Amino acid sequence: MEKFIIYSKEYRQRYVQFMKYLQTIGYSEGSCKTYATGVRDFLHWLEKQKATLTEVEESDIENFYTYLQLRPGVNTGTTLSESRIGSHMYAVTLFFQCQQALDELEVNPMNVAYPRAYRHTRENLISLQDIQQLYAECQTAKQQAILGLIYGCGLRREEAVKLDAKDIHFKNKMLYVREGKGGRKRCVPLGDKIATDLKNYYYEERPGELNRTHTDSMQAFMINKHGTRMQGYTYLNEIKKLLHQACLNERITIHHFRHAIATHLLESGMKLEHVKDFLGHKSIETTQIYTHITTAQIKKTTAYGITALPV
């Protein structure tokens, strides 16, 4: 399989500048390697188009995105995943930001509305209106509590499964994730609506399903109809019911809700670093890729406002 070799002396110089730029602004070694791959791929592709950087237009960016969708992976031979394509596109975004910072370019071609297939991916699939519609379809306190955990608190599926009753402090309106991804702990503030929904489930529905002879049942926050700790497939089944009733896309998964809450929090004014902490990401670079936000959007996020969400 062909490697992404850069033959042009100018492009090799720009690539070296880019790597120094990433190190200067504080990206980790792992992130530098990841973004280096994306930029090498882009410059290699650009050479084959016989185009210079000053000639690149929005249509070229769209063509590169289409190319990424079609080309096989170097190591796998299969088409690139959605997350890999997103990482490459973000790398190109950083590359052109670097060129502007060095006064090499006057116009940034990445100021582009991506093709439909790129815009309508997981992070943009669920709107605030969709969330409100899902809440309107809830028939039990348990369903409202599930939405509160996977959307309002942004929990991963395994984090929701492992959640114990002791991890939620209603008085302080705080939820504690004892063991998130990578073993990381975090504290999640509860908005009034979410705190009320979780409390209603805990005091009104949960006692009727508890198996008081089963230790794990007593410890778990969410209980299934059999009186044991609710598992991931049960969370998903409940979500599928609500999606069907609300006539929304039933391909939506639990992880889509993390994309949704991240996007909605940024739109409501929460700072990027606070969204990072809220989601439990190790690095801010992950949050940037996860939400596909631009530098302009980052500058607009000025307030920590989780309770501003209208649900």
Mean pLDDT: 81
**Strand segment count:** 3
* Quaternary structure annotation: single chain
The CATH H-level superfamily of the largest domain is Intergrase catalytic core
CATH topology of the largest domain: hpI Integrase, Chain A
Contiguous low-pLDDT stretches (5 residues minimum) are 113-124, 293-311
Order of helices and strands: HHHHHHHHEEEHHHHHHH
Bulk shape: elongated
Query: What is the radius of gyration?
Result: 22 Å
Largest β-sheet summary: 3 strands, antiparallel
Level-2 CATH architecture of the largest domain: Orthogonal Bundle
Whole-Å distance between the termini? 50 Å
The helical percent reads 55-70%
Number of domains: 2
Per CATH, the class of the largest domain reads Mainly Alpha
In summary, what is this structure?
The chain has 311 residues and is mainly alpha-helical. It has helices at 9-24, 29-48, 58-70, 82-101, 116-119, 128-137, 141-152, 157-162, 192-209, 215-219, 232-245, 254-268, 272-279, 284-291, 295-300, and strands spanning 168-169, 174-177, 186-189. A hairpin with an 8-residue loop joins strand 2 (174-177) and strand 3.
